[in-house]
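Why do we care about 3D structure at all? Because function follows from shape, and shape follows, mostly, from sequence. That is the central idea of this module. The next example makes it concrete: a single protein chain, its amino acid sequence, and then its structure expressed as tokens.
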Amino acid sequence: MSVIYCLNPHCEEPKNDTRTKKCRSCQSNLILHKRYVAIKKIGRGGFGTTYLAVDMAQKNRYCVIKQLELAAANPDSHRTALDLFAREAKTLAKLDHPQIPKLLDYFEENDQFYLIQDFVLGKDLEKEIKKGGIYQESSAKQFLRFMLPVLKYIHSQKVIHRDIKPGNILREKETNKLFLIDFGAVKEQANTQLMSQNPQSAFTKISVGTMGFAPPEQLAMRPVYSSDVYALAATCIYLLTGKAPKDLCDNNTGELTWEKYTNVSANFAKVLNKMLELDVRKRYVSADEVIKALELVPYEQELAGSMVNLSSGKDSSDDEEQDVTIASSTSQNLADAIRKRKEKLAGNSPSSRSQQNVLPLSQPKLQLTPEMIIQDYRQGNRNFSQQVLSELDLHGLKLAGASFSQSKLIGVNLQKANLYRTNFYNANLAQANLKECNLQRAELYKANLKNADLQGADLMGANLNSAILKDANLGGANLKGAKVDDEQLKTAKTNWRTIFPDGKKRWW
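And the structure:
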């Protein structure tokens, strides 16, 4: 460390060198709580100021210091604020989830209140969108599937986050895992009570959410669990459009008019709009309801696709009549599957009492063809996750931003395809032809690329963490900035034309 920050909020020169234990400007102690040393100011917001720090009691382990800022107030109000803060901090300390930074410590010192949390090295989604561009539907769905279980967990602990927005969701640099940070529960509880005692003695710059991301009932300081559901949907809209919700708000109705700025399927839009209902009574009540609604979306899309195929059929021959009969039967089966699935979720299906008539969730499933993939992609449905697509010829297709997460793509031909930012998480691409394709910033975490041909492929910035590269041909591939380690590369085939993650070629 080269700089130590003084945590006295009134210090005029808070930066100090490492040779002193007391601030040269105000003489305050630079070691917080006898163990934490602030080394970098990360940010400043409604909560107060956030610092990157080292914990000297844990072998200089990195952590985050969050310093609560209090407005000048009378002693009683000040004490009330600290008591409330301590009470809410105890609640947050009980949260134990792999996508929530652990609250390590909380304490009062020098009439200031501090939270100490795990440090997550990564970038928030607001910065990610500004630098990398907007999401497609498949990525937006994946985002919801990653975050909804987090909401379900915190609500089960009787905690409402109150400030979900792109800036409060971090993507960890090493693993790409999403983390939910900066709970608003603490500051809102204290702020509410202080306002009721004395409107002049509230926290400075503290809001009960972020304008545009917070629903009406939360802005009226009456949040419910579904307030977080609304905020998560508003965040998703930002990821899809790159526009802040306040810029999409209809001045007459208060609703977000977002659909013209992106291209998503009607069924997915329906789910998002129900999450965004201004009337709490019409909104999804819980994260679990949204999870179940998203489970139904693929079924409804398959049904819609079958009905389109049926309407385009002609009856000029017996063979064509037979085709129409098959299509009609498939549509009926899909309709029955959706109906029974919905009834089961609602708990009113006769088959909930007798299981033998329930169709499995994975049936029926249509075998995708290259033509179907092209059509779906052009219509905005870019989620091809968990599909069996082995041996398909997808040569030269433009599939940027699509998701083939956990799909079987053994021996698939994707030569010269545009796969920019395409998601192949845990997909099986063994023996696939990926020669000269664009895989820039592609998600290949845990993908199986055994014996795949990647000669001349552009893998700049791709995530290959934990990917299987045994006997994969990387001759002439561009791996500059890719997340892949030397142990993985030793199992692959490289040559003098291969550009390695450091941007250099290696002359063997």
